Amino acid sequence: MQVRRAETVLFLGESHALSYAERVIERDDAPPLVCQPIFLAQAVALSNFTNDREQLNGQVRSALRSARLLVDEPGSPANGDGIFTARTGAWRFVAEMRYAVRPPMLVVCLGSYELFLALRDYPADDFVLPTTRFIHPLARSLQRPLLLDHTNEHGATKYFTERVKPFQIGLQRLRERGFTRLAVISILPPTTDVPTLAHNVNALSGVVSPRVCPEFLYKAALILNALVAQACDAEGAQFLDAWPLLTRDGVARDDVLLADGVHLRDHVIEELLEQLVVPAANRSGGLAAV
Length: 290
Known about the structure:
290 residues, Rossmann fold, 6-stranded mixed sheet, two-stranded parallel sheet, 9 helices, 38% helix
C-alpha cells in the first residue's frame, strides 16, 4: 500500500460547491488533488459578498470557520482574522498541518443567485449589452430588438459594476487574510427553458417575477462574468472561464445542466476540474512532484 500526501482544493459556495465534494484528481507528475467543499448555507451573491463596512459576509466567515480557517476564537478582534488564526500556537499548528500546501487553493463557485437578483432588481426591462474586456458575444439565437423600457450601455455598466464591487472587495479581504491562492469559477450559462427559469427565479429571488426571459439572463451573465474577470485581474485571482467548455453557439450545451436547469451534470464537473481547476492549481504553486 502506498500512502501519499495530497494537495487540497477548497470550493467555497452554496449548492454548486457541493458538486465538487469527494473528488480526487490523479496527476502524473504531482500529488493528487483532493476537492473539499466549504458550504454556504444561504445564497451569497456578488453584491453581498461583503457588507456595508467592507467586511466579509457573515455567511462566508462562518463557512470558513467551519473549515477551521479564519478561526477567531472568543476575545479575538473581528477585524484581525487571518488564515489559521488562533489564540494559541498549538491550535494554529494543528490547523496548518491539515493542509500539505499552506494556504490551500480556494476556488469561489458563483451560482445563479446574482442573475436572479438582477432580473428582479434591474431598473428596466432590458439593457444594451456593454462592450468591455473579457466579454463573450451574445448568442445569435438570443439577439432580438431591445424592449422599449431599456437602459443604455453606460447605465448597464454602472449598474452591474456596482453589483460586482462588493465581490472585488471580498477578494481583497481574502488575500489580506492569507488566501494567496485564489480562483473564481464564472457564473454558469443558464437554461433557456422558460418554465424552469421561472421556477428557479421565483424560488430564489423571493418574489414572483413577471419578466423571466433567457435573453436578459444571458446578457446579465455575460456582463457580470466580464466584470468579475476584471476584478480577478485587478486582485491577483485566477478567473476560470467555464463558458467555452459549457456552451455551444453561445448557449448552454444540451448535456451540461441537470433537469433543474441550474446545476452541472457529473461528467461536466469532471471536465471543469480537468481543464480549468488542475491547470489553476499548477499555476498557483502547489506541491512539488513526489
